[in-house]
Structures are given as structure tokens and as C-alpha cells.
Amino acid sequence: MIPVTEHISISEDELEESFVRASGPGGQNVNKVSTAVQLRFDALRSPNLNPAIYRRLQTLAGRRMTRDGVVVISADRFRSQERNRQDALERLVALIREAAIPPRRRRPTKPSRGAKERRIQSKKHRSSIKKNRGKTRDFD
Question: If DSSP codes are grouped into helix, strand and coil, which group holds residue 78?
Fold first, then answer.
């Protein structure tokens, strides 16, 4: 079991890893060894995620989540396969951890009396500035 939060943990059976060749520089190594990792996690069918966390995960994952509810994370930052596996897993855990935090409810507030008065005063001041613009008469 992979701990995400104190209440959520993911079974290693729920994760599917596939290894592909990484793009970019690396010399002969990049053409021979499959070091990039594609980590797949079926969030929709996971018994460890409740529907509220799944909806927040869907929003946070964006294009990384398929229509079937599978989160796909690609990691090819490092040259070794093991470091890329670790990186992909850390990124998945961080994503789920962020989705597990419920958003704060907004408390509607009203502007104070002083704030209303300051707003009106600034509007009157701006109005008087604009009123004083214009053509001037020559009294000579």
C-alpha cells in the first residue's frame, strides 16, 4: 500500500506502469533503453477515492485524465528507469493529496460603511477632476 494521506492509501495493484523510450538528448543510451515511464491509475474505479475527491482530481488532472477516469502520468526527466518510476509515483501522490483537500467555503461579506463612503468620495473627486477639464476662455 502506498500512503497518500492518513485516510487514503493506494494499492500497488491499482497502478499500471509501462516503459517507453524517452525523447531528447542522451546519446546512444536513448536509442536502446526504455527509461521513460507511463504510470496509469484508474481513479474512477478505485475503492480508495470517494466521489468528491474524484471530482476534484478530475479538475486538477485536466488533460492527464482520460474519459474513462484513468490518470496517465508520463515521467522522462531522469536518465534511469527507477528514478523516473519514483518521479511518476511522487507526482501521482502529490496530485491525489492536493485533491483530498476540500476547498474552503466562501463567506459572503458586505463592504463596511467607511468603505462605501470612501468609494463615493473617490467617485466625486474623479467627477470634479473631469468636470474641470475642457476649453478655457481667454479673458485678455
Answer: coil
> CATH says 2-100 is which class?
alpha beta
Strand, coil or helix: what is 59? helix
- Average of pLDDT values for 113-129? 95
Cell numbers for 90, please give them: 511522487
Give the global pTM: 0.64
Residues paired with residue 20 on neighbouring β-strands, in sequence order? 36
Per residue in 51-68, pLDDT tens?
888 888 888 888 878 888
List CB contacts of 57: < 8 A, sequence separation 6 or more.
Answer: 43, 49, 65, 71, 95, 96, 99
pLDDT digits (tens, 9 = 90+) for 92-101: 888 888 888 8
Provide the 10 A C-beta neighbour count for residue 113: 8
Domain boundaries, the chain: 2-100
Counting every residue written for the chain, the total comes to 140
